[in-house]
Amino acid sequence: MIINLYNNYEKDIEFDYESILNTIEKGLKEEKEISLILVDIDEIHRMNKEYRGLDRPTDVISFEETDDEDPNYLGDIFVCIEKVYEQSEEYGHSMEREFAFLVIHGILHLSGYDHMTKEDEEKMFKRQNEILNELGYKRG
Known about the structure:
By secondary structure, the protein is an alpha/beta fold. Helices cover 49% and strands 19% of the residues. The chain has five helices and four strands. It has a four-stranded mixed beta sheet with strand order 1-2-4-3. Helix 3 packs across helix 4 (95-110) and helix 4 (95-110) crosses helix 5.
């Protein structure tokens, strides 16, 4: 996996996100590429409203590449850093695990997984947990 990182978050980030991305790149063996954009809560709120019609912030948004010019490029993933902080505390695990979770969640969306039905959700979450466990980002 090749991850092109764009840090648009203007404050210091309280965890080593680059190390996590290196682990994900090495752990996911497929020859695919994504762009990962780190944003603040105002930006993700704006995007969620504009593209999904939901007037609230979210944690991660994925945009699948629709141009067939490069079949290895999956698309763009936007991760909200404030949501990483908030949700790691809410769910009782590390910021590193939450960040890895959101990146993997976005990659799976770009790879065709979804959670609109109970059956699809079970498949996606099972695969998500397998990857996170393989990479050493266990819950708790």
